Amino acid sequence: MTLYDVVFKNIKYNIQKYFIYIASLTFSVLIYFTFVSLQYNEQISEAFAREDKMGPLLTIVSVFLSLFIMVFVWYSNAFFITNRKQEIGLYSLVGGTKKEIGKMLFYENMSLGVLALVIGIGLGQLFSTFFSMILLKVMGFSLVVHFSIQPAAIIQTALVFLFIMSITSIQGYLIAYRFNLIELFQAKQKMQQQWKPSYILAVLAVVLIGFGYWSLLHASESKSWTDHFGRNFTMILAVLVIGSYLLFHTGSGFLVHIWQKRKKSYQRWKNLLTLTQLKSRLRSNGLLLTIISVLNGVTLVAFGFAYTIYFNTLQTLEDHVPFSYQFGAQSDLTDNEMTKILETHKEHAVIFDETFEYLVVLGSANGLDSVPGGFLYYRDSFSVLSISTYNLLAGKLGRAPIDTIQGENETVILGRNFIGSQKKDENVGSRLSLISPEGELPFHIIGNKVETLFSYNVQPSVLIVNDGIYEYLKKGGAIHTTRVIKVDNQKESGRLTADLKSVYEWNGTESEWFEPDKGFYSFSESYQTAQSIYGLLIFLFGFMGLVFLVATGSVIYFKTLTEAAEDRKRYEILRKIGLSRKKVKVLIARQTFLLFLLPLLVGIAHSCTILAALSNVMDINFIYPVSISVLVYTCLYGLYYHLTVSTANKLVNS
Predict the structure, then answer these.
(1) Biggest alpha carbon distance in the chain?
(2) Using one digit for the tens of pLDDT, what is the confidence trace for 365-375?
(3) ABC3 transporter permease C-terminal domain: which residues (predicted)?
(4) Quick one: angle between helices 98-138 and 85-93, nearest 10?
């Protein structure tokens, strides 16, 4: 019998044993090939070209995935090889040389890798069209994706994974040289050592995590966080990781120790057998559970944040882009032509069509508590509207009007942050000044309205003044006239937008730095841009989340099976003294449940705290999107738990 025959028979008769390893490799290939195929898909490239050429982001993610997958495959292979040490010892016992055993392990791992590569690319090719449709759907593109084969994607995926499998196969080859025969046969005979948890370290774990949570939730109120956000956030993440490690290594064991002290807990056989080795296993798996909890937290933060931004942006976009169309005043001929175009699109009935003017006036914001960003973008200038013009537009938009502005030196400031918390009484009571024809004119802010009145990409800081003061400032200010239109079904008004833009005349000058009032702005384009950008992020983070999920689930799977194989004789003894196979399965399920549950709960707690802190800073509601993300992730995580319990039960209870 040749070495190749041994490799072939090992794979043939142990395919069920190798299933999860092959499945993990196959899924990794599938995910990587999907990203690469999207990069080379011409239809996707054309869509990205229309949206600020976001295609290169796929390249960055594919590189990141390849690095992560390399670490994951290395780790999985290490568990896979460790679980076969006795088998390797047997080959050595019957006369196999270290070189022959090393070659066998190398060829076997390469064969499994090639098998996973072929299956993964095949499945990826079949599903690439489906994934492309999902990507375009969440990005809001109405394109029909055709099936296509990307040879460049196949070659790149094959090269990357053959390189990864070569490294892990060399790892398997060297295993025969790293251990002597007695070490290989005793690999599964290590006994769990009993230990007494440290009360001090358990308390320290709770203190560190509690301090990290408190700091994150109060970050929006701290000047230190405002000035040194990156430094503080990095330090808090380090504190949470250390606290998590101590929690798994000592804190969880301490809770089990307290549980053991309760005599009633031993009155049920499940508790007696579950608690026996649980303390030592939690301690020995402390680092592993910490890594898994961090990966769970990172996944939930990334996907939860992307989904929240996507959900909230599309839900609140109308607050930031109040008009279906806004553009600088055109010639009478062009205005009439646009009106005719509006009349021809019966599916988008005109709700209102107004033309109004406003001033852009230089000013000073030194007296304000918080300087609006629009003031700086508009070269230290404010946009000034008369109260009558504001009330006209507010009535059209269904907003509350301003009753009156009595004093000539009184004003109401208006503005809304796209992202970030904002106080309703911000700058109220403060003072500012405008440059009038006769010099500096001071104003007292008597009110603040958190809203937008322009569809510009960058919102100006708006001041509402009484009509008399407006006419006075108008003598020396820059007058801007703009037309605003509101239509029905504005999200789907892409064709109307294209028709209007075809006759629009830009009347600015190329040499000027910033002329938003001269541009053409539409709600449909803003909605499409937001949906495409954040839809792409959801797609990317969703697939990265699947990779992390497979990684964490597989690591726990391999670890559980390794420990189950070590305890196989103990389970046989339990069955011999009368414990039924059903009760053995319950025992396995309870111990495995804690290994899955603890890092999941810690990851959810960390991610929810981080997202809650971001919610305080950004003034965005994370509850609904994050709840959906956690629910979906938990369900998928639960599938891995059931697969692990089923496999472990077959291993020790058959």
Answers:
(1) 104
(2) 888 877 887 78
(3) 60-178, 543-636
(4) 150
